[in-house]
Sequence to fold (656 residues):
Amino acid sequence: MGNFPTTVKHCLSYEELIQDYPWLARWLQEEKRALTHEYPEYVKIVEVGPRDGLQNEKEMVPTGVKIQLIDMLSETGLPVIEATSFVSSKWVPQMADHTEVLQAIHRSSHVRYPVLTPNMHGFQDAVAAGATEVAVFGSASETFSRKNINCSIDESILRFEEVICTAKQRQIPVRGYVSCALGCPYEGPIESTKVAEVVKRLYELGCYEVSLGDTIGVGTPGSMAKMLHSVMKEVPSSALAVHCHDTYGQALANILTALQMGICTVDSSVAGLGGCPYAQGASGNVSTEDVLYMLHGMGIKTGVDLSKVIEAGDFICKALNRKTNSKVAQARGDYSVHCRMKKINT
Amino acid sequence: MGNIPTTVKHCLSYEQLIQDYPWLGSRLQDEKEMVPTRVKIQLINMLSETGLPVIEATSFVSSKWVPQMADHTEVLQAIHRSSHARYPVLTPNMHGFQDAVAAGATEVAVFGSASETFSRKNINCSIDDSILRFEEVICTAKQQQIPVRGYVSCALGCPYEGPIEPTKVAEVVKRLYELGCYEVSLGDTIGVGTPGSMAKMLHYVMKEVPSSALAVHCHDTYGQALANILTALQMGICAVDSSVAGLGGCPYAQGASGNVSTEDVLYMLHGMGIKTGVDLSKVIEAGDFICKALNRKTNSKVAQARSKSS
Fold:
């Protein structure tokens, strides 16, 4: 019956009450609406542009450009920057320079630099290169798991278990990702209970946080709420993050929904780097700039300087010779003209 | 000079303007490429088949200021009007209202502002003077039993004044509502709003006007439109303005987007189990049509994703 006072629910039947006092229905509805949502005071932004973003760009990005991008991002206040991926260069040639990147970046003491490690081989290479945090990447869809990493979900979890155990012994934190949390390009909708099951397994194995990925951006506030409801029965919200793709323009609305449900970690990509590999020309990662604009507009702290992120986005877009996917960056890009127009008009 | 804010037209010579703002030259050129009347008619007819309950057909503003709408009478008379849809037209004053009624309009809309500066720059008069003009239109419309919708621009920010006090927005909305507008649409004209400012503004407006008489008109210039619309829905608003293919750029930021795409709004609402009565695939078709006709890309991410994935 929704958010109605307890007394009303217990004393009389609701239907009889509304029949006798029609104004009460409106009042009860207005009470419900007047309650503003609770939002976290602080949201942690996990910047995935240098890895998830650049990995999906068609052009090979020169190593020097990647290093400069990460160094610029390190100056923005972002607390976490996913630096690179220790996946075999046979599968992901764009990340072949992982060791060089990790060793050359200037690591800020205020920032963490997780790297992707799909298996023990990648993990060992990462540690040898100086990694102090790693991430493993599972799926809620059996078909996606087989097509993307050539094994079933169960087999992938076995691989991760080895990585996570070894990482624990070395006191290296491990972050988990679960893709297809809101839909799969092959299977379509994914049962939220299945998502919850995979998330729970990664969490219980020892991932300090699990990021829920809307891999093809098909989610809406409806499916996001439903999925989170199932997942949060198994794993506390403090150990969860959302990784929304903006392929259908729903990312910010989905992130807002997640925040309303208690999630306070959001993955995003500077300039919205990283297209959706399943729909050519469609957008992928949500832009860090657009997320920050929304959060700051809601009075939510992030510790991140939006204008510095815009600068980093400008840099990488020029280097890649492409337009930004961030609407904030596009609008601000003409801000200087906007200011002048303002001056003329006054 | 096309749809350029009045101040720009009056303050500087055209040549000096283009010298200082080269992008403005190409923008003005684009504006000169008028949409053929038959294309407008076909677009509206296609939209009439989608289930959309309200389609704003045209504007009876002087063609001196908005030449793109000069064919208003021809458009209104030629469209096939579905019995399931309403076709309001903009009428800024009595002259426009009379022309609209003569052309067969059965619903009109008036356009005010919560920002004094924007009102003066955009329609050459103060908020108070504009309300006086609308009062005349609304009274006459009432006598002829023609419903009037109100718009309040700059509800979440003004390109000249910056942030606008929500109490000021509430005051203007209340005046339009009490004059007789059956609904007032709250416009985030430059798309600067966020769920924070949307909630605050609505909180004040809804103290004066019931949510059933309000609508939100969000621009997506900063990518915030869907999040803002979601916030409005959560506060009880159930009318949302949107534009097929996200037509209509933001005149205050070159290259920036403007209206939120109807396709993207529908995708969100349907995904939440909210009924609209609208067929998304037919809206996508109408969007494809108009984008081909205008030789431009759609601003709708849903339309982009759907066309690529097929």
Q: What stands out?
A: The radius of gyration of chain B is 19 Å.
